[in-house]
Amino acid sequence: MAIKNIGELGLDEITEDYLMAECEDMGAELGVDTHQGSVYMDACSGHIIRTAKFFNDLATVNEILSILTCTGDVLTEKMMERGMERNPPADTAATYYVEYVGAEPQVGDLMSCDDHFFTTQKLNDRWVIVSEETGTDMNTLVPGLPVIPDQDVDNLISATLKELAVPAVDMEEDDSARSRYIDKLSGPAENGNKVQIRSWCEEIQGVGRTRTVPLWNGDCTVLGIIISTEGTEPAESVVKLVQDTIDPGAQGFGEGKATFGCFFTAVAAKKQEISIKLDVTKKAESTYNGIQTEVSNAVKAYLKELALNSTSDEIVIRYNNVSALISNISDIVDFDNLLVNGGKGNITCDIYHVPVIGEVEVNGNL
User: How far apart are the first and last CA of the chain?
Assistant: First the structure.
């Protein structure tokens, strides 16, 4: 006999097959003909189909609305109900330093570089250009490219792209946003404790992860080690924003979110470069430069995942995991002599450092 108490079932278990089996069991108890085409079964089938569709639609709605499974705009709205937003709420622009020889343009002038358009700005008394396009794809321009004014600037001899000043960031993904939301609902984030200080920091745009060191400089002191949303060393402006938000001037006056007498200091996590070297046998149509880019991107994504999601104060870059990532690159037939930071063992980053991709060297097997 099938289960008669429908309340004991999940929404996705109440299917047409289940309801049909229930109908046949009930018909057997009543002593009526339950064969296909019988009057009893024909009378029930239409209601069963409609009921099964109703529960299927209900299961879909439940999945959309449940905090454990909802995505996109629904998750964003749920976060807004709790005074939260994605970090960042939308893709951001990339900011590059630029060097001018001769005259300088005006703030707000339009520039182009590598077929992308930028606006001139000042950052900490240095000239920068801010991309009109957003997202992490804008972080890949190579220093040394020429920067071309949209309109002539008298006596400007040259403009050259320099290093990335503020990386572009993609909108926070669903899994990360959901994790922060659930932490706020269920975590003991109150009274300025460790969880709450970390939550305060990670709500600030540009912060992907915060590690805390209590009593680092005496009683009532807290050090916040900031990691960017890209899992790297954050920009100075992000660290300053964290400091000003939590405890302006690290004075403990309670003028920010930190309580009276809590001396909070924000610092940037220092980058620890992870170099990769290996020999490969490639497919005939592949190139070593292409494989080098693929290896770099794969390890970079792995390091980002570690930096943003590690639950330990120390981050361990496992040699076997790096090897597995390289094994999954389709352009590589085989590889050998893999070295991670010059060796074949695990690499550890302490609480003050964050791993970032360094030099990647790919050589051909002879």
Answer: 69
